[in-house]
Design brief:
The complex is a heterodimer. Chain A is 31% helix and 9% strand. Chain A has six helices and four strands. By secondary structure, chain B is of the alpha/beta class. Chain B has a domain of 137 residues: Beta Polymerase, domain 2 (2-Layer Sandwich), CATH 3.30.460.80. Chain B is globular and about 60 Å long. The chains are: A alpha/beta, B alpha/beta.
């Protein structure tokens, strides 16, 4: 299916100058191995991507192969938020709250063009990419992506999980939004991300 | 809360019972009008502006002042019995001089008839039209949506507030022609306003209460809810 072979994680290069000893790295490997192979997804399906997500979970593509068959409809027992579909502004505080309710360690997959960039919905009602609301680890392109595409994204996330080191203290840091504006990233960056492209350059605003 | 109602069978009021057939060829303009149109013109000569038949469907244009009377008659008259309100919406034309039209799609199940009623609201004054909520309770959310998207005030509606956009939405009415597609504010400002909303505050207590359980609530609480008190505000 065009998947690349997974990097070999069973060998760790011996670096005497490194502060991480054999025990720590082996422990990391064990922990990461456990996490990467039991990522419980929190499905946040709002549109057609959710249909593909369901297809991925069903027998033919079988998410259970990755230890992900346990859909966690409570964010408190979830590891990875899979946002499948467009997110309107009315839903923005909801997905933000779900993300904040998920305990660490947690990851996020933005599935499809709409979740990643707003997609074709460059209008007044749709969030232009969920990375303006919550941090995203893996973007899966497609409209909607086929199950193979989502599986590729999941494998990428597994690789990311496998490469985590407990010595890296910043990896589990919770990003707190600016209390005044409730935004993670500066407004100028959000405006730049939401710049019009394609046909929509003709759609101008009437107020700043 | 629960009222007795009679079951209506489709086509039960027709003289000769025959299965509905899909017409083969329909003219674009003209053709047989819905029999309600002629009766409506006879009954409310001053209220009916004009009528037309497009693709076999009849449209009646009425004056905004006569909406309540005409709709009440269409609903109650034993020869009409338009018991189902399919849709309430509005049309705004690119020509800013042209009036905004409110459209009601009515269906008569006993007579198997469909009637489209339009009323033009002139420009210049705030857009408003009488509500048909008293006649069809199903108009509640339809009129709220129409208000949310077009800003048309339905007078007499019990709870006219936004339904699709959140209540604190400040940018205006999105389906109006003068509304830019991407909204009036910058993306960051839109996101900031969306994230700072109180997500519990947009439901009324009545919406959170399922209809039958309402009767079981304490009398004091029912009284408070009937005055329109909301949660979370």
């Amino acid at each position: 299916m065009g998947l690349t072979a997974r990097p070999e994680h069973s060998t760790v290069a011996y670096e005497p100058q490194s502060q991480e000893g054999w025990v720590t790295t082996r422990l990391d490997f064990l922990v990461n191995w456990g996490r990467a192979n039991s990522l419980w997804p929190m499905p946040f399906g709002t549109a057609c991507c959710a249909i593909e997500f369901m297809a991925t979970a069903a027998a033919r593509f079988d998410l259970a192969r990755f230890g992900m068959e346990r859909m966690s409809f409570s964010p408190r027992q979830a590891d990875v938020l899979i946002c499948a579909g467009r997110v309107p502004f009315k839903l923005a505080p909801v997905i933000r709250r779900i993300w904040q309710q998920m305990p660490q360690p947690k990851w996020c997959i933005s599935m499809g063009a709409c979740a990643s960039s707003g997609g074709m919905f460059d209008n007044y009602a749709v969030v232009q990419g969920i990375d303006t609301i919550i941090p995203v680890d893996v973007y899966v392109p497609g409209c909607p992506p086929r199950p193979e595409g989502l599986l590729y994204g999941i494998r990428m996330l597994q690789d990311k999980v496998m490469s985590e080191r407990s010595a890296d203290k910043k990896i589990r840091e919770e990003m707190n939004p600016d209390p005044k504006s409730q935004l993670y990233i500066p407004p100028s960056v959000i405006d730049e991300l939401g710049e019009p492209f394609g046909n929509s350059v003709h759609q101008t605003r009437s107020a700043p | 809360m629960t009222e007795k109602f009679d079951i209506v069978h489709a086509g039960e009021a027709l003289q000769e019972v025959q299965a509905p057939v899909t017409p083969r060829s329909i003219k674009h303009k003209g053709g047989d009008a819905n029999p309600s149109v002629a009766l409506l013109q006879a009954q409310f000569a001053s209220a009916v502006v004009r009528s037309e038949v497009v693709w076999g469907e009849s449209t009646v244009y009425i004056t905004p002042a006569s909406v309540t009377d005409v709709m009440r008659w269409l609903h109650d008259d034993p020869g009409q019995r338009y018991d189902y309100l399919s849709d309430v919406t509005a049309v705004e034309y690119r020509d800013f001089e042209a009036p905004v039209e409110v459209v009601w799609h009515l269906r008569s199940l006993p007579y198997r008839r469909f009637l489209r009623v339009k009323a033009a609201i002139p420009r210049g004054a705030p857009l408003s039209i009488p509500s048909v909520w008293e006649i069809w309770k199903g108009a509640d959310w339809l009129e709220r949506e129409c208000y949310d998207m077009f800003g048309i005030v339905f007078e007499g509606h019990p709870d006219l507030r936004r339904i699709l956009m959140w209540e604190q939405y400040k940018e205006g009415f999105p389906l109006r022609k003068d509304f830019p597609l991407r909204g009036r504010f910058s993306r960051a400002e839109q996101l900031r306003q969306a994230l700072s909303q109180n997500i519990e505050s947009r439901y009324s207590m009545e919406e959170l209460t399922i209809a039958d359980a309402f009767e079981d609530l304490p009398a004091e609480m029912r009284k408070r809810l009937s005055t329109g008190e909301r949660t979370g505000e």
